[in-house]
Design brief:
Structural class: alpha/beta
Shape: elongated
Radius of gyration: 23 Å
Oligomer: single chain
Strand order of the largest sheet: 1-2-4-3
Number of strands: 9
């Protein structure tokens, strides 16, 4: 049987990651496993770091083997952070509650300025944006952007990448991706039965995210700041626009 440890770096992984303290990381996962399943035989752990385009890590159990694929953003992370992730992944695997102090420790680390900046670079370098052209079947996002820009931002906002999403989502009508500097609207807004006002309001909302970026304070991540909410109230026909979105 193969000993616990890192597997050979696969496609897309970084060979330098093999220099990480193998024994320490495997010991962490074995110890956490025993805490969660004290009367269960400890399985074989196969741990790899992967060049993901985000901070996600994954875990899977197959017979007497547990595969852990960790984001290489955590390369060099302090041991308490790696322990926290082990608790989070194994707790999710066995459907156990995650202690609040552990989840907060991990979230606080990811919320550090240098980690957030590193993640932004990783998303930009490794990720890609799957969108369609800004000129849709009914509405042209570039035209809508310029009208909103002139009316509410004095025409001073630099146009980001604009596009329609691949699917007509009803839950996410729009989003701004700072890593790719892109505003994406759901295709459900690009239909004859969808009033232009709805698309205009969603565009305005996402443009406010450029004007008022997310604020980070400790564990707190404020997406809609007080300044954001105040500015949003300046949208003409706001009540009518929200009612149109509710009908969608």
């Amino acid at each position: 049987m193969q000993a616990d440890g890192f597997e050979s770096p696969g496609l897309g992984s970084d060979p330098r990651l093999a220099d990480i303290d193998l024994k320490t990381l495997c010991d962490i996962y074995r110890r956490v496993f025993q805490e969660l399943r004290p009367r269960t035989k400890v399985p074989h752990f196969a741990i790899t770091f992967r060049r993901f385009a985000n901070a996600n890590s994954f875990i899977r159990m197959d017979a007497d083997r547990i595969d852990v694929r960790m984001t290489d953003v955590l390369e060099g992370a302090p041991q308490p952070i790696l322990e926290a992730l082990a608790h989070i992944l194994l707790s999710k695997l066995f459907r156990k509650s995650i202690p609040r102090e552990i989840s907060q420790r991990y979230r606080r680390y990811l919320n550090r300025k240098e980690i957030r900046e590193n993640l932004a670079k990783v998303r930009k370098q490794r990720g890609w944006k799957q969108i369609t052209a800004p000129k849709g079947d009914i509405y042209d996002l570039e035209e809508i952007f310029e009208e909103i820009n002139f009316q509410y931002f004095h025409g001073l906002m630099v146009r980001p990448v604009l596009g329609w999403g691949l699917r007509p989502s009803r839950t996410t009508l729009g989003h701004y991706d700072p890593s790719h500097h892109a505003i994406v609207l759901s295709k459900i807004l690009d239909r004859k039965e969808s009033p232009r006002l709805a698309a205009e309001y969603v565009m305005f909302h996402e443009m406010l995210h450029l004007r008022y970026p997310v604020e980070h304070k400790g564990l707190r991540r404020c997406v809609h700041t007080p300044e954001f909410k105040l500015a949003e109230k300046s949208f003409l026909r706001l009540k009518e626009a929200k009612e149109a979105l509710r009908r969608l």
